[in-house]
């Protein structure tokens, strides 16, 4: 990896443990992602300066490493902490600008040869694997770049709408458009019970008997064609169980008051 050898050579005299080597590797991956180190410790200091190198005192504590970074565009400020737990290093990084936190656990012996800490060409093992783990598990993408990508994607979607391919789009309710959605014919063969066998398949049919699905000729009233002034075309799927909420035809006779009287209606003792 370009640059890592120079960085390691600059601090090799201060590396005394495998954990130091792993922290050095992670530091370089952060630098490669577009950041510069500004110092060690939680709080800013007068001696802070941006650099690709590790700052003085970066490994004074063998139990806790704390480093601070800022992006080249000064939009991201990272606080990196690495805690030694037995043979592992637990990394935690927080972006103070977005308050996003990520962490990564590294088994030190898997990636560092403790017997060759002073030789760069032999100290690291499986560097590509470790680099991928750091990139995917620890580094947080730049929120500003992500935001720009989202805006561009939104503009593309708004500039090229495809309403016919949107499953969540509600058809227009204007009855004058004449647009009617595509419905399957409820009288198709084997349609009865299709919705019960495959409720998510969009097939018609059901357990309740419906005259429009019984196989007999349909009546003159088709609610799927719409009711002028009441329902637009396509508001009711063909063959749906539909109870009209008003007169459908014109000049319909009123019901006979004596039509189907209750039992015993003429019994004075009821």
Number of strands: 5
The main sheet comes to: 5 strands, antiparallel
Q: N-to-C SSE series?
A: HHEEEEEHHHHH
> What shape does the CA trace take?
rod-shaped
Mean pLDDT over all positions: 75
Q: What is the CATH class designation of the domain at 4-140?
A: Alpha Beta
Oligomer: single chain
State which percent range the strand residues make up. Answer: 5-15%
Compute the separation of the termini in Å. 100 Å
Structural class: alpha+beta
Any overview of this molecule?
The chain is an alpha+beta fold and 270 residues long. The chain has a domain at 4-140: Protein Transport Mog1p, Chain A (3-Layer(aba) Sandwich), CATH 3.40.1000. The chain is 23% helix and 14% strand. The chain has helices at 4-11, 18-32, 108-111, 120-123, 127-137, 143-159, 194-197, and strands at 35-40, 64-71, 77-85, 88-95, 100-107. The protein has a 5-stranded antiparallel sheet. The longest helix has 17 residues, at 143-159. It is rod-shaped. This is Proteasome inhibitor PI31 subunit. Residues 13-139 form the PI31 proteasome regulator N-terminal domain. Keywords: Acetylation, Cytoplasm, Endoplasmic reticulum, Methylation, Phosphoprotein, Proteasome. Residues 178-247 form the PI31 proteasome regulator C-terminal domain. Residues 141-204, 216-270 are annotated as: Disordered.
């Amino acid at each position: 990896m370009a640059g890592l050898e120079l960085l390691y050579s600059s601090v090799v005299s201060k590396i005394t443990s495998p954990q130091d080597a792993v922290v050095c590797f992670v530091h370089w991956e952060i630098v490669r992602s577009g950041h510069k180190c500004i110092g060690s410790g939680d709080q800013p200091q007068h001696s802070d300066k941006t650099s690709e190198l590790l700052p003085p005192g970066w490994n004074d504590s063998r139990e806790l490493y704390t480093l601070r970074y800022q992006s080249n565009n000064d939009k991201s400020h990272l606080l990196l902490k690495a805690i030694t737990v037995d043979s592992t290093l637990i990394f935690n990084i927080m972006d103070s600008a977005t308050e996003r936190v990520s962490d990564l656990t590294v088994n030190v012996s898997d990636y560092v040869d403790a017997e060759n800490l002073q030789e760069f060409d032999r100290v690291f093992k499986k560097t590509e694997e470790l680099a991928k783990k750091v990139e995917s598990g620890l580094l947080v993408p730049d929120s500003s770049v992500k935001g720009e990508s989202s805006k561009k994607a939104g503009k593309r979607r708004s500039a090229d709408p495809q309403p016919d391919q949107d499953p969540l789009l509600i058809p227009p309710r204007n009855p004058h458009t004449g647009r009617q959605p595509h419905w399957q014919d409820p009288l198709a063969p084997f349609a009865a019970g299709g919705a019960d066998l495959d409720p998510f398949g969009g097939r018609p049919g059901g357990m309740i008997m419906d005259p429009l699905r019984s196989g007999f000729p349909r009546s003159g009233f088709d609610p799927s064609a719409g009711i002028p002034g009441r329902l637009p075309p396509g508001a009711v799927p063909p063959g749906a169980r539909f109870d009209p909420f008003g007169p459908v035809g014109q000049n319909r006779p009123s019901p006979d008051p004596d039509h189907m009287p209750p039992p015993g209606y003429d019994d004075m003792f009821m």
